[in-house]
């Protein structure tokens, strides 16, 4: 069995930084999914959907349980973000049902981008600072 050094485990501060960096990657993927050739948009959309799935899974394994275990900060902070994540899943499912390039598809992609942008902004303002504080040294 491979032994890992405890120092190899990322801190809450490092995880919060990684989540914020992923938000930037997701924003860039949305831009790419709306611009360029049809083929480029298709590749970018597939990347975007994989990024969203990976990102939310990572948050569900790290950020949300840690905040819940630590008391979660102000009432509803984590609950609001998790409700937004459920909405995002519904928007993605609807997007995947539509014909790429159709008016409805483009509108659904815009709705998804708006919801994800709102979620990331709120998360960076409320949830991630609380999460990062879990890894801050005590005074």
UniProtKB/TrEMBL annotation:
InterPro entries, per the entry: Hemerythrin-like
Residues annotated as domain Hemerythrin-like: 18-130
Taxonomic superkingdom: Bacteria
Pfam family, one: Hemerythrin
Name this protein carries in UniProt: Hemerythrin domain-containing protein
Lineage start: Bacteria, Bacillati, Actinomycetota, Actinomycetes, Micrococcales
């Amino acid at each position: 069995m491979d032994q890992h050094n405890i120092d190899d485990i990322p801190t809450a501060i490092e995880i919060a930084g990684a989540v914020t960096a992923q938000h930037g990657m997701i924003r860039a993927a949305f831009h790419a999914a709306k611009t360029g050739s049809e083929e480029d948009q298709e590749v970018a959309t597939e990347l975007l959907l994989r990024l969203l799935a990976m990102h939310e899974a990572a948050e569900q394994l790290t950020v949300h349980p840690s905040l819940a275990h630590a008391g979660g900060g102000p009432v509803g902070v984590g609950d609001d973000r998790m409700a937004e994540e459920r909405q995002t899943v519904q928007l993605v499912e609807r997007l995947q049902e539509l014909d790429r390039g159709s008016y409805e598809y483009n509108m659904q992609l815009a709705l998804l981008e708006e919801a994800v942008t709102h979620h990331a902004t709120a998360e960076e303002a409320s949830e991630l600072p609380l999460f990062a504080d879990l890894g801050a040294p005590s005074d």
